[in-house]
Amino acid sequence: MQEDLTKKDKKELSFADKLAINCYDLASVLVSAIVTIMLIFTFVFRIVGVVGTSMVPTLQDGDWLAITAWDRKPEYGQVIIITQPNWFDEPIVKRIIATENQTVDINFSKGEVYVDGVLLDEPYINNLTLNQEDGVTFPLTVPEGHVFVMGDNRQGSTDSRSEKIGFIDENYILGVVKLRPFNINNYDRKFSFYKFTDWKISQAVLTPASPQA
What is the tens place of the pLDDT at every residue in 160-203? Predict the structure, then answer.
């Protein structure tokens, strides 16, 4: 239809002809936009919602996150979405504390976490790491192809300290959290947008220290 109409002189086009051409152009633009958005959210970014408080204060219940699967190499400090089957039978969000072949040790009486004998400086946590789950003993070494994760709300998180979660197979990392564009205010449950500087996830810092006894 459009090809025949475009061969006509513009003066010969009726109102119906012009309307048909405009509708066709608009449809083409919309289809292209939808396909582009689908490709972006399939291969570049995905949007996921946060349920629960295990990552407080970094993430709040009701936050929405943009994640990407392009970061194929897990790194210490990354906040990730995990789809590995677990006791809760649902995806979880946690922070990577150690990667393959690293040794994790926790002094539960002091709430201190060590990786390869180095004390972690963890400004992002909500409380100290005092909870120890049955069935997991420390120190432990992370198997190849796996990571050890914990929630930032250490007293309110079930994570790799528990047999219910355990080590995370890297193949079950859905993506790395890159942006937190907005959340739901816990008081009035209204959406609010974050400034760009607030979207960044705090990175963990290693501080040399003597390993625990």
Answer: 999 999 999 999 998 888 776 655 554 444 544 444 344 444 44
Tokens of 84: 């590995």
Paired tokens of 43? 């291969």
CATH H superfamily, domain 46-207: Umud Fragment, subunit A (2.10.109.10)
- Long-range contacts (CB closer than 8 Å, 24 or more residues apart) made by 10-16: none
Q: What is the DSSP letter of 180?
A: E
- For the chain, state the CA radius of gyration: 24
Provide the b/e sequence for 50-74 (b: ≥16 CB within 10 Å): bebbbbbebbbebbebbbeeeeeeb
Q: Cα separations (Å) of 114 from 24, 96, 131? A: 62, 13, 15
- State pTM to two decimals: 0.70
Of 131, 140, 202, 190, nearest in space to 167 by CA:
140
Count the helix, strand and coil residues of the chain and give each as a percent rounded to the nearest 5.
25, 30, 50
Structure-derived torsion over alpha carbons of residues 73, 76, 78, 79, reported in degrees to the nearest 10: 120
Taking the alpha carbons of 161, 164, 165, 167 in that order, is the dihedral positive or negative?
positive
Domain boundaries along the sequence of the chain:
2-43, 46-207
